[in-house]
Design a protein that fits this description.
The chain is of the alpha+beta class. Helix content is 26%, strand content 10%. The chain contains 6 helices and 4 strands.
Length: 182
């Protein structure tokens, strides 16, 4: 694949998934359409450190895999923070009791941070530190981190939308903004 004509640079402390979602918003595409469908679940890259996916993304964004790794939890390898990831365990269903447990990275967010992002930089993004399980309160605003969408109460599955003036994070289920005034 050829490198993308426009690949924004990630912001400090932004997650890889959030950054790629903003790049997809530039092209008015979903992340699923922008990246190969088998690789569109970048949350798995955040956990599994799939080198082939990182190499592909590095070539598309004109960066290096090491540069991309710092926007994943792979940058925490030598730190004790890696054991404190916010991981949601889903149980086997009653119809399939012998299936294994699935673990998936959950996304918490601070509505105040997102509102502040929208007002100052006009770019809402997920922070890497929000993936830590012990962190349930935003250190900046001293408010609880949200795990579900305020509109539909489902677990957050965010998508960036680009307007003429800003990048906004919205719920992929309801297409409403994640950050709302209380």
């Amino acid at each position: 694949m050829k490198p993308w004509p426009v690949a924004l640079r990630p912001l400090a402390e932004e997650t890889l998934h959030s950054w790629m979602s903003r790049v997809a918003a530039v092209y008015r595409m979903s992340l699923h359409d922008l990246v190969d469908y088998r690789r569109s679940e970048l949350h798995h890259v955040m956990l599994d450190f799939d080198t082939s996916t990182l190499e592909l993304l590095a070539s598309l964004t004109r960066t290096t895999p090491d540069f991309l790794l710092q926007y994943t939890v792979g940058s925490w390898k030598n730190e004790c923070r890696l054991q404190w990831l916010t991981i949601r365990q889903t149980e086997p269903g009653w119809m399939f009791p012998h299936h294994e447990f699935r673990f998936q990275l959950t996304t918490n967010y601070c509505e105040s941070c997102l509102l502040e992002d929208a007002a100052t930089t006009r770019i809402e993004f997920f922070r890497l530190q929000w993936l830590l399980a012990p962190q349930t309160i935003c250190p900046r605003h001293l408010t609880f981190l949200r795990e579900t969408c305020r509109c539909c109460n489902r677990q957050v599955r965010a998508q960036h939308w680009r307007s003429k003036t800003k990048f906004a994070l919205g719920c992929a289920w309801t297409r409403r903004p994640l950050a709302q005034e209380p």
